[in-house]
Amino acid sequence: MKVRVTVMLKDGVLDPQGKAVEHALHVLDFKNVGDVRIGRVIDLELSESDPARAIVQANEMARALLANLVIEDFAAEVVEE
Amino acid sequence: MKVRVTVMLKDGVLDPQGKAVEHALHVLDFKNVGDVRIGRVIDLELSESDPARAIVQANEMARALLANLVIEDFAAEVVEE
């Protein structure tokens, strides 16, 4: 089962990478872009058949390693049974 | 309208960062993790009210700047009206 963990900076935490992309998009003439925030996704292939248990495990992994909970939020979802 | 662009390495392209995370998860005793792939998400705030047009614009931005089409695939989806 494939589980996707999405990690984003918390609201209010400055995102310099997002600001740089926002600026670059404006330079490229994409004028209707406002705020840009950048995060990461971690796709985990788990040997687990129960979706609920897979999510629980992915959450544990996120808390232990994948996300920095001081400045980041995360969410896990099953993307492929 | 908020559009999320997800950029992942194409299948078959080596993902050393994913391999490192996979190894770290095994060290942390998460034994049922198989393949790990890492990508990024770009959340764009667009001043656009039509979801279809917003997706078209996000795709253009992905092709112009956000993704490296030689080694990466991307997908855009509306996450907030």
UniProtKB/TrEMBL annotation, chains A, B:
Main location: cytoplasm
Entry keyword ATP-binding: yes
EC number(s) given by UniProt: 6.3.5.3
Coiled coil location: none
Keywords recorded for this protein, A-Z: ATP-binding, Cytoplasm, Ligase, Nucleotide-binding, Purine biosynthesis
BP-aspect Gene Ontology terms: 'de novo' IMP biosynthetic process
Pathway annotation from the record: Purine metabolism; IMP biosynthesis via de novo pathway; 5-amino-1-(5-phospho-D-ribosyl)imidazole from N(2)-formyl-N(1)-(5-phospho-D-ribosyl)glycinamide: step 1/2
Catalytic reaction annotation: N(2)-formyl-N(1)-(5-phospho-beta-D-ribosyl)glycinamide + L-glutamine + ATP + H2O = 2-formamido-N(1)-(5-O-phospho-beta-D-ribosyl)acetamidine + L-glutamate + ADP + phosphate + H(+)
GO molecular function list: ATP binding; phosphoribosylformylglycinamidine synthase activity
Cellular compartments annotated: Cytoplasm
GO cellular component: cytoplasm
InterPro entries according to UniProt: PurS, PurS-like_sf
Superkingdom of this protein's organism: Bacteria
Oligomer status and interactors: Part of the FGAM synthase complex composed of 1 PurL, 1 PurQ and 2 PurS subunits.
Similarity field: Belongs to the PurS family.
Record function comment: Part of the phosphoribosylformylglycinamidine synthase complex involved in the purines biosynthetic pathway. Catalyzes the ATP-dependent conversion of formylglycinamide ribonucleotide (FGAR) and glutamine to yield formylglycinamidine ribonucleotide (FGAM) and glutamate. The FGAM synthase complex is composed of three subunits. PurQ produces an ammonia molecule by converting glutamine to glutamate. PurL transfers the ammonia molecule to FGAR to form FGAM in an ATP-dependent manner.
Identification of the protein by name: Phosphoribosylformylglycinamidine synthase subunit PurS
Source species: Novacetimonas maltaceti
